[in-house]
Request: fold
Amino acid sequence: MNRQNVLNLRSFWQIQIIGWCCFYLFHLLESIHAFLTKRVFFREETVPVFFMFLGSVILRPFCRWLLRQSRSWIAFELKGAAAAMVTSIPVACASGLILQNFNHVPWHALVTVWAWSFFMLFMWCSLYFSIKQWQQSSMENERLLRAESALREARLLALRYQLNPHFLFNSLNAVSTLVLDGNAPAATRMLAQIGDLLRTSLDSEVTAEVTLSQELAFTEGYLAIEQTRLGGRLKVDMAIPFETRDALVPNMVLQPLIENAVRYGVAPLIEGGWIAIKSGLDDDRLRIVIGNSGRPGEGKKKNGNGIGLGNTAERLKTLYGANFEFSLGWPEAGGCEVVLELPLRRTRSLLEAPPCAL
Reply:
């Protein structure tokens, strides 16, 4: 919206008429005693207010012109006072002539009406400037918020797309390993699973956050690929309570963490291992824990500062600022444990009956 549209408040005439009517009624109520004892009171109070209303209409184009000059507030007030002083002269003269039935108007009465008109018109100009500048400030803040939101979404989108080639490279590398091992059926099945997973990723709407249930559905597709590659060496344990399923989480936040868990905690072991994914609520926080088995003392050596963890930390910071926790731990029993704590936000009410945990 350009500057000229900002200065054309669509509801100006509604505010103008309602404001002057309220002022007029308040003025009548303030002098109700004089109205009951003096018959001409109604006429004496109505005529000046009517001409002041006309004076404000005349002042409006001048005030709009002043605002377009982008001058300081002091300049607005000084020039507004000068315009109100000049405009109040014909207002006072017209009011005096009508009240005196176009006869001689006493100078003291004229000065009184002029001073009152000048004060009210000056206050009108100040109020007009205040409303318009508040409106411009609000629209500028809204524009900045939209720009910041667009920048944040673009950054999150770039970070998410950064994950796709990383995941694709690792998956194709696993396919090539299966081919070299002579396991053509598993390689074929794995390629089909990779295609399905990428199709789901590309076809789905790109949003910064999804529900935990949606994120888990994508994660299960990835785990199916890993189970094809590792066979019985990879065991998966999920404990996802129903009340956490509609909580919002960053899009594709689990896949790189689980990929690291498989890569460093399960794949290097001849006997394989397990991946555990758990979620829970802690007051207004969503807690997600991803753990793997591994061997005692080995996980910390490979402390995975690669693209997956770095990308995840950057996305969490972009989405939540400082209102999140993201930590890695190495239990004494071995393996690695990643803990995510996010502010709890939901998209809908819980309408379904709670199923058993996976």
Q: What stands out?
A: The two ends are 52 Å apart (CA to CA). The first strand starts at residue 209 and ends at 211. The chain is about 65% helix and 10% strand.
